[in-house]
Amino acid sequence: MSSVRMEKVTRRYDKEVTALDRVSLEIGSGEWVAVMGPSGSGKTTLLNLLGGLDAPQEGRVVVGDLDLTRLSRPDLIRYRRERVGLVFQQFHLIPYLNALENVMLAQYLHSLADEGEAARALEEVGLGRRLRHLPSALSGGEKQRVCIARALINRPSLILADEPTGSLDEENERAVLGLFQAMHDRGQTIVMVTHDLTVGRRADRQIQLEHGRVAGEFLTQAQDEEAIDEVLEYLWLRVEGDVAAHETCALGARLATPHLLDRMRARGILVPGAEPAFSEKGRRRAESLIRRHRLAETLFSETFQMHEALVEEEACYFEHILSPAMTDSICSFLRHPPACPHGKEIPRGSCCAGKPATGETGTR
Ligand code: ADP
Ligand code: MG
User: Fold this and answer.
1) Closest ligand 1 atom, CA of 48?
2) Among residues of the chain, what percentage have pLDDT more than 90?
3) Where do the domains of the chain lie, and which CATH numbers do they carry?
4) Residues 6+ apart with CB under 8 A from 3
5) Residues lining ligand 2 (ion), CB within 5 A?
6) Which residues does ligand 1 sit against, CB inside 6 Å?
7) Residue 21: pLDDT over 90
8) For residue 307, is pLDDT > 60?
9) Number of C-beta neighbours around residue 328 at 10 A
10) Nearest partner of 257 among 286, 284, 228, judged by Cα
11) Which of 115, 126, 157, 182 would staple 2 via disulfide (CB 3.0–4.6 Å)?
């Protein structure tokens, strides 16, 4: 398990250049974070510190249970070998060793050289037929994948990658990002430097550096919208006077931080004021979410007769993916039900205009 914590970390190269200036950040174990920012903003310096390749003048760098700034040199070397996988834009492959030998060299450093395992790692990155090729006979994308195989060989808990897709064409970029996705799915923590927004958006979170400082932490847009949806639903239920009934979607209560509420005010989803209150735009968005959620519940429990816990779980999912047309079809199919199985009102949609709610549903 590798969580990462930097506390007021300063790295100066000389009096003139402060590459990192009192940087504090936290990365959860298993998180995939993209470090973004213009050239010279300190991204590579930050990775080098996390990898134990460099030390700050001030502050602490803690990875898992290890304070890197206090480790002895041999312990730091052990940390690098056992816990960290490094993937760079420049490939750092040994030119006179073939792909297999380059990966085995990394194994040797981890003291477990095993040709079969090295070959499997190369197969995993799609290079099973390039084992005996020298770096000079490999394309940029293939070299990058050898580097990834090398970084993966001992399943390090922390992957540090500096512009891993920087010099790749689109197809290789997709292949390499797929490999990172697989590492992420396995629970490895990934800190990836990139200035490419499409690459950065694949991460759970983006940390923006500017002039050696953290300029902000932005969620990827889809996550941001989903968090806003959760908060809107929570606020809707609160207005209805019943929050406890929807434990599963109570995520919104935790997400409703002052910071997110402020952003929702700035975007005109909430009106200004101390207490969170919907703007007309926000109310419509919340109403449409609630409508999708409750229609999905009605469909699943009355038509498909699913178990209640599953109904709730599926409804929380479907509310994010139902298109307006699908929502109206479901509503029509269910004959515009006035209430969900829990007896909560289902907001009317455009399809309901002029149609009396019959209360009857599709079960017959
Ligand atoms: P990025 O990776 O975001 O482009 P870097 O971390 O490489 O930024 O560099 C941050 C700042 O530190 C830059 O101004 C750079 O010139 C300076 N810098 C980086 N490495 C050194 C070094 N070894 N000696 C002196 N200055 C350096
Ligand atoms: Mg750099």
Assistant:
1) 6
2) 40
3) 2-216 (3.40.50.300), 221-278 (no CATH), 283-352 (1.10.60.10)
4) 26, 27, 28, 29, 63, 64, 189
5) 43-44
6) 13, 17, 19, 37, 39-45
7) yes
8) yes
9) 18
10) 228
11) 157
Which token pair is 351?
A: 């399809």
Give me ligand 1 centre to Cα 44, in Å: 7
- SS3 for 17? coil
Residue 186: φ, ψ to 5°: -80, -5
Among residues 56, 81, 79, which one has the least CA distance to residue 6?
56
pLDDT at residue 315 in the model: 85
236 closest CA partner among 254, 253, 222: 253
Ligand nearest to the CA of 37: 1
The band of 108, judged by pLDDT with boundaries at 50, 70 and 90, is low
Dihedral through CA 324, CA 329, CA 333, CA 338, nearest 10? 20
Contacts of 199 (CB under 8 A, 6+ apart): 34, 165, 173, 177, 192
Q: pTM to 2 decimals?
A: 0.64
